[in-house]
User: Fold this.
Amino acid sequence: MTEPRLPFRMSQAADLNTDGRRPIDGVLDQPFMLGLFLPLQTGAWSPSTAPRETSWSFDYNAECAIRAEELGFDLVFGLAQWLGKGGYGGEMEFRGDSMDPLLITAGLAPVTRNIVLISTVHVLYGWHPVHLAKFAATLDHMSGGRWGLNIVTGYKPEEFRMFGLEQMEHDLRYEMVAEFVNMMDMLWQAKGNVTHQGRYWQMEDAFVAPKPVHGRPILVNAGTSAASIAYAASKSDIVFITSPAGADPEKACAALPEHNWKIKEAARRIGRGVRTIINPHVICRETDEEAQAQRDRIIEQQDPVAADNFAASITGGGKESWSATTREMWVVGGNVHLVGTPERIVEWFVRLQEAGCDGVQVNFYDFLPDLDFFGKRVLPLMVEAGLRPPPP
Assistant:
């Protein structure tokens, strides 16, 4: 029997950059970063039954990641979510099936070569810094230094209760996360065993080897509140932001400059630099009318029970990030809705860049065909606009 062969040696990925630069350095140098939000849950971002083939399965997500890499995307994200049976309910049981992004990125490491793989982890849901420091270093080696960690504190009481925990106060969660990351960093940098008595976690004679490929993995978090921005400024490479004004792109572009400035200024004050990235739902067709018709189909064919539950879950969580997002906006999904021709989508990307965003993490309704259309029609226009480099 012939042994199955990987598409390349796993160690080869670590040798791709011979000048000492990390894979993330090339991403951060892009004029406008481009990421794909993977559809790891049933229905992805949209509680709608309008026709599509989007799937939460590993095979489908691997195909999305591989295609994104072929098109020159910089990174892929995975959303983490903890829900009871049936997810948000309705006929479609929106997000009833949900893959774990930590394991998904492990599976994507051997089938991709260049794209950065970022995984979301709710670190306060029973994790210990030693566990995650070890897993992170392992995944970083599996991917050749292309792995990143999106640190999430969690905010829904029902999620905390799922793990036998009580929800912590908002700012306390970021104090705990800062200690957690500090302890991981100790383990990644230490040449010997580490003993540390923190306020929330302790470790005695702990050690992690091998160390991450480039000192530490890429770190990401979402930031809107003062506490989350302070954490992001001190720890993160990339900050995942949301529009304070909801999904309407005109209002978003008006509100984002101040929000971006706050985050970047907080980092500058302590001698650091961060990049911000936002999540648009892109509905792109050859004409504005076709694109608007697709948006209308998504809304008209919504699963009303799932949509009600999804919107209520988020707006009821007290998250100021989404206070201006209406129920109809949640049916479409994503943080900013960009609807129109390829030219119009690129115009909005330019506007988002002018508003201080360093990139986008896009999602689609019917992922693979929409991604292919994006590659054929939108990416060349992004190159013309100076948002992306010419293909090699």
User: Anything to note?
Assistant: The first helix runs from residue 23 to 28. Residues 1-6, 10-18 have pLDDT under 50 and may be disordered. The longest strand covers residues 116-122.
